[in-house]
Amino acid sequence: MVAATFWAPGSPAGAEAGPEAGADRAVAAPKITYDKYSLMVDGKRVLLWSGEFHYFRLPSQALWRDTLERIKAAGFNGVSLYFHWGYHSPKQGVYDFTGVRDVDRLLRMTEELGLYVVARPGPYINAETTGGGLPAWLKNVPGRARSSDPGYTAAYREWLDRINPIIVRHQATRGGSVIAYNAENEYAVNTDRAYMADISARARAAGIDVPITHNQCCDAADWTTDWSTGQGAVDILGVDDYPQAFNCPDPRTWGTWGTGVTERRSREAPVYAAEYQAGAIDLNDAGYEKCRELTGPDYMKVYYKSNLVTSGATMFGYYMAYGGTSWGWLPQPNDVYTSYDYGAAITENRQLTTKYDEFKRQGLFLTTAAPLTKTDPASAPASSNAAVHTEARANPDTGTQVVLVRHADRTTDADESATLTWTAPDGSYTVPVRVKGRDAKLLLAGYDMGGQRLAVSTSELLTHTESGGRDVAVLYGKEGTQGTTVLRYATRPTVKVLSGSVQTSYANGNLTLGYDHQGLARVLISDGGRRPLLLLLGTDAEAAKFWRADDVLVRGTSLVRSAKGQSTIHLRADLAKAGDVEVFAPARGLTLNGKRITARRTPSGSLLAHAAGPKAVRLPELTRWRSAEGAPEAKPGFDDSRWTVADKTTTVSPIKPKTLPVLYADDYGYHHGHVWYRGRFTSDGQEKTVDLNAITGRKGIYQVWLNGRYLGSAAGGVQADAGDASTPPNPDPGPGHFTIPSGLLKAGQPATLAVLVGNMGHNDDWTAEDVRQKQPRGLVGASVGDAAITWKIQGARATDPVRGPLNNGGLIGERLGWTLPGYSDRTWRPAQSTITPGSSWLRTTFNLDLPKDQDVPLTLRFPQGSGKYRVILFLNGWNMGQYLSTGPQRDFALPAGILRERGRNTLALAVIAEENATIGKPTLVPVANHRGGAR
Ligand code: IPT
Fold first, then answer.
1. Which pTM value belongs to this model?
2. Best mutation site among 54, 134, 240, 337 for ligand 1, i.e. most ligand atoms within 8 A of its Cβ?
3. Which of 454, 547, 862, 916 is the most exposed place for a label (fewest CB within 10 A)?
4. How many angstroms separate the Cα of 234 from the Cα of each of 83, 126, 768?
5. How confident is the model at residue 351 (pLDDT cuts 50, 70, 90)?
6. Distance between CA atoms of residues 760 and 701, nearest Å
7. DSSP state of 325
8. How many whole angstroms separate alpha carbon 149 and alpha carbon 508?
9. Where exactly are the structural domains of the chain?
10. What angle do CA 405, 410, 411 make, to 5 degrees?
11. How far apart are CA 323 and CA 201, in angstroms?
């Protein structure tokens, strides 16, 4: 049992305020309904703009709140949440929802922040996580996974019977946040309708009364089953779309997997882009920055905006908003490594990127302009240039139009101009437009913009607010392009250009403003029969500087978390550096993160203050490393009397072992991380080689000792059988043949073979064929000449009650608690940078004293050493990932909560070397430094 001397990550002190429903959820128990246009909350239409977040990839409750606040500040009104069965269940019948697994608390946070939730409990989730979310113990359960086979049915019902009640009590229909329930995940190869029907039936029986959805996948021929009708049908059938595929090494390619326009899959339900690509896995080790580029702002503009107009979608789930870290043994090893940054809008270390800016531009617009929740195809303005494509939808009740303007050829980055002849609800207008580079615009016509009437605009709307009896609206366009905005008035209004260059004219009730998008222009318009308007006209970049929180517009900070109050605005905001903060509100005073700051009123009617930036921080060097030998198990005299005897002759696995006994780690209850084997035999003096087969998952290795002598290592196999129909079985997975040095074995003498096998995580079951996820881990064959070998096996000692089932494997330091802060390494030697083949441990401590009111995300960087080795990194006992000297990842996130920002931290490194190696000295690297933070 691991000693409980560690510190658990932060539940902020103080009582829970309880669900504080978002603005449009003032009604305690609304009904969630839908029609072909949109979801409705008590009859009020909602455009669901949600981003995917994996709580299991961020083991810190304090950072859940931080990240959810960032997601909300990007203009999202919802999050899509997978729930990970295997993360909560170390063995059949055992479930844990405490600490970093406390999803009830996660859902409470979404309620406090006013974010809707699409709950996605699987049972299967894919998500590039071990087993695709299936617990590894399921390998020992007979019956095809993701089917209505009785063995599997009993298993998944166990999970649903625990997760469903949690989701049920957080439904929007009970004053909570959950607005939809997604059954299974891309279920289409194994078309077992009874299984799908049972998932829905169990959800309903548990009290799920929000719409049930499904994310259907791929236009590929296999994925044909239509889950919108018949047995197992769901209410709202969505589509998963990854039009850019995962071509990160070549980020300028477009549309590898098609045009990416989400189709209507259910006739009487809204169009749902269930998982729409918002990043990519780094399949080819190009690095996540390339994935971010592949799915960058240009792509987002063209593809996301098309979804709204071409397909009329009103439900969106962007995969991922924040990817996080596949810490511990969370990764599914064939596709990902520790970092699950995903090239997302918010980086693994919670930094905001240009993709975040684009989400904010689109998200604020879509959640501001209510007519977009109900639109039909409509005739578009005529374009004078065939290279400039227009397409439109209109709201049948208000007549409001939304027009998509893009290149006719989606892939071009040409610079094209056209004149639009636009029949708008308020009259006919002729306006110039320009599409410069890869771009797409959503233009409005006939829109009631607060107390104003927008006739047409070739600028895009960011958002508008009403405060103190006037409207503030932000419009924007690409830098250097021309913009035209026409507003309607009963009589000639008074126009005052406060800054920038804006030409205005008035005729027939139309106030026409002409300008170039350049910096930020400010125009005050009053009289004309309407309340005053402050119109802010900016570039894309200027638009991205605005934040909207609680109907207050703020400009100048790096992030705004909330803005509350009337006469004094209380801002919770982050700043990367000192600078001006501008708040568009009729208030008199301002506080920033709890402290009053001096503010003056500007000619724009806003409040302007100067805020200080963060103080510089100093980080300690990591010194005084100590080391211990890591493979005493290899010595013949090692006491393995308490290890498990490995003598099974049968297995549930569809993969049959090459030799007996069955040595699959999972069959003996060792599901994660390393396992040790010790085999004893009596030598006949004739043995020449040790012949092994092991399956580790991609990039895994195993190491072999005979009578204490290191014989070498070999690459573990990925799988014995390809797991899908397209690849033939592999009878020789992960082979290793080790020559026995002469004299090492003596006829008639006992011998000890020791094998350490890595387990990089379990394969997924994407195609629902079972055989892939049931691939064994560990030894699948072992022989030494004709010797009869008796075996013992040892993996993780017990499940860490705080860190969960995926934290530890069976390395000596894991079994004896060397990873934990409470362990004393006084007897260890000072460490050397050279390491010999085998396994060893390194440990050090460091103290931090980061300022309380600053957010300084840290990573641990491994410099390039020499030789082939890998390191499993434990921070205060938490397994934060695996560094491979062969790459690609060198920086490892140390999330606050696991990291003590003020106090002592313990680092323990398990080093596994395949050859003589030199390990470079790891360093602490600050990723950013902001004043503020989610405290
Ligand atoms: C889609 C899965 O639903 C999701 O879990 C994740 O694995 C994602 O892919 C890739 O990151 S499947 C889609 C690629 C066909």
1. 0.95
2. 240
3. 916
4. 19, 19, 19
5. very high
6. 9
7. B
8. 72
9. 4-352, 372-557, 631-794, 801-931
10. 140
11. 31
Contact in structure between 634 and 842 (CB atoms under 8 Å): no
* Residue 185 in contact with ligand 1 by CB distance below 6 A: yes
Q: Are strands 401-407 and 440-449 parallel, antiparallel or unpaired?
A: antiparallel
Scanning the structure block, which residue is given the tokens 């410069």? 436
pLDDT tens-place string over residues 156-181: 999 999 999 999 999 999 999 999 99
CATH of segment(s) 631-794:
2.60.120.260
Spatial separation of the C-alpha atoms in residues 777 and 670, rounded to whole Å: 9
Q: How far apart are CA 380 and CA 383, in angstroms?
A: 9
Task: List the structure tokens of 726.
Answer: 């397209």
Burial class (CB in 10 A: 0-12, 13-18, 19+), 618: exposed
Task: Read off the pLDDT band of 767 (50, 70, 90).
Answer: confident
- Asked if 186 is an active-site residue, the reply is yes
Strands 48-53 and 78-82, sheet pairing? parallel
SS3 assignment, position 355: helix
Establish how many alpha carbons lie within 13 A of residue 86's alpha carbon, considering only the half-sphere containing its beta carbon. Answer: 30
Pairing label, strands 212-217, 930-931? unpaired
CA 485, CA 476: separation in Å to the nearest integer?
Answer: 11
Same fold, 631-794 and 801-931: yes
User: What is the dihedral sign for C-alpha 245, 251, 254, 260?
Assistant: positive
Q: Does the CB atom of residue 171 touch ligand 1 within 6 A?
A: no
User: Atom 14 (ligand 1): residue with closest C-alpha?
Assistant: 242
Sheet holding 552-555, edge to edge: 546-549, 552-555, 579-584, 607-611, 599-601
Percent of the chain's residues with pLDDT above 90 = 88
Q: Compute, in angstroms, the gap from residue 242 CA to the centroid of ligand 1.
A: 8
Least confident of 12-26, 580-594, 837-851, 897-911: 12-26
Q: How far apart are CA 594 and CA 577, in angstroms?
A: 18
- Domain 372-557 bears CATH identifier 2.102.20.10: yes
Are the C-beta atoms of 210 and 120 separated by less than 8 Å? no
- Best of 256, 288, 319, 772 for a ligand 1 pocket test (most atoms within 8 Å of beta carbon): 319
Mean pLDDT for all residues in the chain = 94
pLDDT of residue 12: 28
Q: Tell me which CATH homologous superfamily contains domain 801-931.
A: Galactose-binding domain-like (2.60.120.260)
Contacts for 461 with CB less than 8 Å, ≥ 6 apart: 365, 368, 369, 444, 447, 449, 454, 473, 474, 475
The pLDDT, as a whole number, for residue 730 is 85
Q: How far does the centroid of ligand 1 lie from the alpha carbon of residue 83, in Å?
A: 15
Largest distance between two CA atoms of the chain: 109
pLDDT digits (tens, 9 = 90+) for 210-221: 999 999 986 544
Structure confidence at residue 246 (pLDDT): 95
Which class in CATH covers the domain with range 4-352? alpha beta
